[in-house]
Structure formats: structure tokens, C-alpha cells
Structure to design on (760 residues):
């Protein structure tokens, strides 16, 4: 349906197509194939291309205050692979995973595939609430806690530094791994940088995932895990059995991209675009959505999370979502799909603000607002 | 250790580096990024890039006599991913997988990761013996039978057409899936082409894997599965949870490569090189290895399987393998590692003939032959 030019999509997590540094990628693909084609062509290492892991550390991880060695890194075929590897290494059927109350559906899929018991932690405007996290750690004895701390998917919320420190302390206190999934952190368009949970990780219990899908291109299928060496070794063994190794051309392109120092300019180029679109989208929600709709204004990332007014149980947005696609040609993600707390987010809508340009944001929200007023009975 | 220039390796399954069509890949990478960069950059489909699946069918699968539609295909991040997906979809812990008596260690790894019970089928000079296969189907009630029918890894053997038909009939008779892993079939340097088991598959029970690792480059991480639509749909769901999608740049390069008709010339270029190296290696085994060493002369592929004389129980090649690496700087794979029949292949050595040039083949076998005569007590 995305092929239909009338379709306006707030659904996916796609970067803006005009933000892709395609000319750089074309040039670097040619360069790395000419300079080290034989190495790129050949069977690679499961852990990843050595120079890519080094440059990811130097240009991506260390600038964020995380101290780590190459032995603490593992190349991932996208962060998606990391969810799967963590699940394989740590989860037996019936084991519990804690996660943000509303969270990334792709990660939920990997945990459900492992037949895990997924329990959502309550969130406020600052993300997961440490007191509820601790209560659920004690009660559920989880194998790990999965969280997206910055510009969270789907809520757009960011966990402040003090709360991050608390999460690291809980991981140490209860000897529990934390999977810190941070693909959006560089897409900040206002406010101050917050250090990763990993920087507070005295007990070596935190695994940090960074992705190249949002800051370079998704098509490379490339991410990197930074964490406890022994855990990453086990994940590497599982990766070997699963795909042998990641595509080396993608690693070499990303490596060259980082070493040429192109990332800061790319981030400086796309973040303000996303910021303006975020503001435009928020203004449209204010104008067209039912009165009483609430959201936390994101400081970065790709998503705004709108909570429609009234009792969540009065909504069935899963049904309305399909109806909206057909009848008004507007796409969104409903809260049920991202929910790890049953019934909690029936009145919530995730709106992506990176894909569509201004006029289509306005047009789409006008259509969607009118549609919601008709079909949810919230007429104002 | 492969970095040591003195090291002569008959161990890996690496294509000859000089066989890589690097100039074509550089040119096509540039071409596809310029022509459809936005599509390649973006999130892709789990099933794979439509045009790649179509060209794989047209240029790779249909010419081998296999009738299939795009719905019967699934892009794989290398065949390795296929083993893993089959295991995830079909195997519960304790389930049985049948396979060739000696087989690919990467597939064994995936089945063991799924906690399956792996049972090897006896082989003669024509590969697996259908009578033993049927006996084991009846006795073990396997979830599927995994076989490499052409220039088998590690034995170099090829299953003749009549026996392939028999395997397809057994699959139908016992309602059992067959995983036909055929990455070497195009690397034929003598003899007549044999049709895939899939061409005899009246009951839609056979899944055929083809890989681009041996005919293009391993670094793209690209393979394709052709088989029953319903099974591939389940594998696609498992793939979605595991890595979301394969790297689209690799698919686009392979697609363009196939559509430009470059594959036949590439195969015609590398196969004779492999054939001459195979003959050279066989001559070296005749000359330097202990008297009574036997092998089946391969008609293609990458491997020759040498059986040393005498009782297999008198050998411990796993220990000798490490010793040979250190003391004479020659690498090989011992039979134990590839074995699905405990103790059966203790006297067997897999020798790769694609990696090393003539003079290093001679030198390596001279060293290895002398070493084996000393350490196995077979002094002739």
C-alpha cells in the first residue's frame, strides 16, 4: 500500500529518504572494494571486521563516554540480530524478560519466538520508573531488562541521567543483564546529550546496541554490540550457527564512513530536518486530534506518541488502523502492537515524523484527526 | 595462522581469490546504487528483493529444470541462515534430523544448537544409500533429511539421478521434508549435469538451497531457498524475528550480475581452474600419502576426501590436525569434525583444492604425506 502516492504513512520507522548520504556510499563502496576487495569478498569473521569494530569504538562508542576494547564488541546484522542472539543465549522457554511498558515490536517478536514471558515496566514522562523496575525484578527474576533509553520507540521519551544510573545500580544489585538499545541517540534536535546507561555500568552487566540504520542506511544491515566479553562470546557462537558472519562490504563501507569523519556532518544535516518535522507534527496533533490528546514532546528520534483522551478500554485502534489505511489512506501504529502491558495502551498512537514532508504531515493529520473524531466518539 | 605465508591450507572452503569477479562487482555496485540507491538504502522485505528472487529463478533455478514461482523463493543471508531457519521452524529439542554420514559442519552446528538428535545415513561411492535412508526414516521418524547431493562436502561425491529420484519418492512416501543443499553444483569440471532432487519432487517436500558464496563471492552473504510456499512462509517469519531482512545491496548486485548474463562466463572461467587443481591434488595424494589411501575422484566442487588405510579406530586425526598446523604448517579438516556417524571417519581427511596454487599443493602434500607416515604408523 506504500506504493500508492495518496497514502500518507506515519507508520514505519524509516529515515527520510532525502537524508541518505547516497553519494558518499557510492564513493565509499567503490573505494573499499578497490582497496580491499579480496578481503571483503572472502569469508569473514563471525565477530566482525576488525577495523570496523575499532572504528565503531573510536567514532561512535567512546565519544559517548563508554570505555571498551575490541573484545567487548560484536558486529550485528542490524540490531534485530542482537535481540535474537540475546534471546538465544539467555532465554529458555518460560523465562522472563522485562522491558519498557510500550516497546519495539521487533524485539518483542524475538522474545516471543524464544517463548519467553515478557513483562512491561510502568513508564512516566521520563521513561521506565525505577521503583516499578525493582519491584518486577524481585517478583519476576528476569534474565534481562530490555530498554530503549533515548527518544524511545514508541513513546519518544528519554530517560534522564540519574534514572539511568539507578538502572545500572539495579543491574549490579540483582546481577541482571540490561540490554540498552540506543539506535536513535544521535538524532537529537534539542536539549542536552544524556550519557548511556553503559557509562554507569560498574558491574559489567550492560550490553549496549548501536545501529547504523538510522544514522547511515538501514539497507546495510549493520549494528554493533558493546558489552561483557563473556556474554558477547556466547552471542558470537550463536551468530556463527545462525548466519556465519555479517556482510563484510557493509562493514567496510561503514568503517570508511566513520574514518573519513563524515558522521558528525550527516547527523548535523538530518537532525534539524527531523526536528522541524517533529514540531510540525506536534502542531498538527494539537490542531486536528480530539481535544485532550496528550503527548510528551520528543527531543529527538523519529516518533511522537499520542494518547487519546478517556478510558483506554473504549478504544479499538487495531481495528481502526486497518480502516484508516483503506478509507482515508493514512498509516499509523496502534498502541496494542507495541504494548508489553496488556490493555494499557489501547488509546495510544505512534506517529513517525521523519518520513513525510510538511504538506503531507498536515494533510495526513487533518484526515486522521477527523477520522478519529468520527470513529472514537470523541467529537471535540 | 592463515596470515603466515608458510602456512599451506587445505582446510577451508574458500573459493580461489583470483576467481572473484571483483571488477564486475565494483562496476555493478556503483550501477545499482546509482539506479536504485533509495530502494537499496531503505528497509527491505524479509522475503527478499523481488527482482533478485525473480532473476535467481530465471537464471539459476529454472535452467536446472526446477519449476517454481517467486512465492516459492526466500532470500537467505547465506545458506547458513537457511539451516538455522529450517531448524527453528521444524525442530524441537530431541527431534531427529537425518543427514549424509559425513556432512557440512556449519549445518551440524545449527542442528545441535536446536538440540536435535542428528543421525547420519551410510554412504557409498554414489553418496547416501537409499536403503539405509529408508531404514532410518522408519526407525527415527526424522523431521527432515539434510543432504548435499552434488560434489558433496566433505566427500566430493555426487548422487546419481536415479538415486535422487528415489530420495524424492521416499520424501513423498513418508511425508518428510528434504533439505537439498546444492552450493557446489555449478562448479563442475567433468561429467554430465545431474538434475536436482527438487526436479523429482512431485509431493512438494523438497527445499532447495543455492548459494552465491561459491559462484560469486562469500562476502555478499547471499543464498536463495526454493520450496513449499507454506514452509517458506514460516521460515520467513522466523527470519523476520532473527534479522528483519537480508542486505539489499548484496541482492541488487547479484540481481544485476545475473541479468547481465555474467554467470555462465564466470563459471566457465573458474571451473577449469578448480579441475586442474583437483587433478594436481589427487596426483599428490597418490604420490605422497600412505599406500592404500583411497578417494572418490570428484567431478567438481572444492573437496577431495582421502581415506587413510587400515582400521579407523587406530587414528586420532583431530590431535594430528593441530600438530600438523604447528609442526609442518599444513591445514586440513579431519573426518571427526564432519562426522554424523560416531567413530566412522576417524581415518578421513578433507582436502580443499580451490585455494592453493599448484606448487603449494605439491609442497603441502609432500609435507603432509611424510607427516602422516610418521605419526600414523603407516610407513609406506
Amino acid at each position: 500500500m506504500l506504493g500508492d502516492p495518496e497514502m500518507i504513512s506515519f507508520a514505519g520507522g524509516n529515515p527520510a529518504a532525502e537524508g541518505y548520504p547516497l553519494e558518499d556510499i557510492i564513493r565509499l563502496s567503490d573505494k573499499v572494494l578497490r582497496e580491499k576487495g579480496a578481503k571483503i569478498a572472502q569469508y569473514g569473521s563471525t565477530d566482525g571486521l576488525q577495523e570496523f569494530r575499532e572504528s565503531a569504538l573510536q567514532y561512535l562508542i567512546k565519544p559517548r563516554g563508554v570505555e571498551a576494547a575490541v573484545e567487548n564488541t560484536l558486529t550485528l546484522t542490524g540490531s534485530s540480530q542482537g535481540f535474537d542472539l540475546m534471546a538465544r543465549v539467555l532465554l529458555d522457554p518460560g523465562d522472563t524478560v522485562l522491558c519498557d511498558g510500550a516497546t519495539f515490536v521487533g524485539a518483542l517478536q524475538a522474545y516471543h519466538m524464544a517463548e519467553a514471558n515478557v513483562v512491561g515496566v510502568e513508564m512516566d514522562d521520563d521513561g521506565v520508573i525505577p521503583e516499578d523496575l525493582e519491584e518486577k525484578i524481585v517478583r519476576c527474576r528476569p534474565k534481562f531488562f530490555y530498554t530503549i533509553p533515548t527518544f524511545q520507540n514508541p513513546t519518544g521519551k528519554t530517560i534522564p541521567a540519574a534514572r539511568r544510573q539507578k538502572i545500572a545500580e539495579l543491574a549490579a544489585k540483582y546481577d541482571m543483564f540490561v540490554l540498552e538499545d540506543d539506535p536513535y541517540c544521535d538524532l537529537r534536535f534539542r536539549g542536552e546529550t544524556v550519557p548511556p546507561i553503559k557509562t554507569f555500568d560498574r558491574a559489567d552487566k550492560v550490553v549496549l546496541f548501536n545501529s547504523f540504520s538510522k544514522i547511515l542506511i538501514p539497507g546495510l544491515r549493520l549494528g554493533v554490540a558493546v558489552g561483557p566479553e563473556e556474554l558477547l562470546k556466547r552471542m558470537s557462537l550463536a551468530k556463527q550457527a545462525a548466519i556465519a558472519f555479517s556482510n563484510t562490504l557493509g562493514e567496510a563501507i561503514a568503517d570508511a564512513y566513520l574514518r573519513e569523519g563524515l558522521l558528525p556532518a550527516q547527523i548535523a544535516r538530518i537532525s534539524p530536518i527531523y526536528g522541524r518535522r517533529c514540531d510540525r507534527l506536534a502542531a498538527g496533533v494539537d490542531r486536528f486530534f480530539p481535544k485532550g490528546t496528550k503527548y510528551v514532546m520528543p527531543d529527538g528520534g523519529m516518533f511522537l506518541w499520542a494518547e487519546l483522551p478517556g478510558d483506554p478500554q473504549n478504544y479499538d485502534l487495531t481495528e481502526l488502523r486497518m480502516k484508516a489505511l483503506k478509507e482515508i489512506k493514512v498509516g499509523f501504529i496502534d498502541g496494542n502492537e507495541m504494548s508489553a502491558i496488556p490493555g494499557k495502551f489501547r488509546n495510544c498512537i505512534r506517529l513517525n515524523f521523519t518520513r513525510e514532508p510538511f504538506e503531507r504531515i498536515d494533510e495526513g493529520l487533518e484526515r486522521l484527526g477527523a477520522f478519529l473524531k468520527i470513529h472514537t466518539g470523541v467529537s471535540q
